[in-house]
What we know:
Blueprint: H1 15-21, H2 26-33, H3 37-42, H4 53-58, H5 67-70, E1 73-85, E2 94-102, E3 105-109, E4 132-145, H6 146-149, H7 153-157, E5 168-173, E6 185-190, E7 194-199, E8 204-207, H8 220-224, E9 235-241, E10 244-249, E11 254-257, E12 264-268, E13 279-285, E14 288-295, E15 304-311, E16 316-319, E17 329-332, E18 339-342, H9 343-347
Amino acid sequence: MARIKRDWTSLPEGLLALIAELLPSQNDLCCLRAVCRSFRSELPPSTTISFPQSILTTTDFLKGPNPSTNGLYVLIESTAYAVRPLNKKESPPWLIKVEKTKPGKVEIKDPLSILRFRFPRKLPKFLNLLDYKVTEITTSYALETTAILKGKPELAYGGKYSQLEFSSGKVIFTSGIDESDEEFAVMVKFGVGRLSLWRNVDKKWSKIDLEIDLGIDFEISTIIFMNFNRRLVLIEDIIYHDKKFYVLLSRGVTMTVDSKSLSVTEVAGTLNDLKWYKSVYLLESHNNLFLFAKFSKNLDTEDYLKVFKLDKERHEWFRVEKGLEFEDRAIFLSEDGSFSLSAKESSE
Length: 348
């Protein structure tokens, strides 16, 4: 019996668009558009980000927490992908980050750095997604002033060091992306000393004050950023975990912020093992919260890590000694959002 050859280019009008709406990721949409020219002509490339559009267009969200100084902001979406050619299954995947800066425009960056990605000569300049397996790993968000994006940082800083933290910030938000949900909230970490929260219930920015006393046993690098009258500390990282906003401060002090009441609660105190660290990161894995601290002994030795797990009942971080929590996982630590994936996924 002869095999029937189907003409996918003659689908009923509107059916292809309905199919595209059901696709789980933008990567799947790209693969669908790569089938043929007629598909590409009927399906425009996605220019939106996975964030409630009405909040960006009908509220003052993009004016930021300090509108008199910085002007408008742009919400930037960055997605990390693992890319592997189908005809070379034995080769390791390429890990790249695609950043959307403007509608229809993207930039390729190193997923573990804030720098632009320089393509090795071995990488092709053009990718046919039908020839590659592309796995979407994680998505992160940032707020940047339009002045920064235009290459005019002096406009964003306003000539004042006190406004430096407002030029760009790491963005996290509640898991339910629904503009009609009054509990939807967005937290932004500007630099190391500014923390702001935008809530859908009142549609405005609120400043979160974190004032604690770590005592005199304190990092010298922190003193530079410290206001001695208010005893502010460095904000190292933020994450949305277990339906709560977690904030990691200097020396492992960890707080949660209630988006409804704006109250701040300490969930872990000073961690004695965190002295003279280079950087720290929060990471969620298997419904648990982990702290990764990077250290360096001296200029002649390689950096090393210490890993801690949050005990929510005892309100403290405890050291993960044997690493069994991540026995089958690959860990990626980054300032704009750390993530993990199974070793099988990273090698397939």
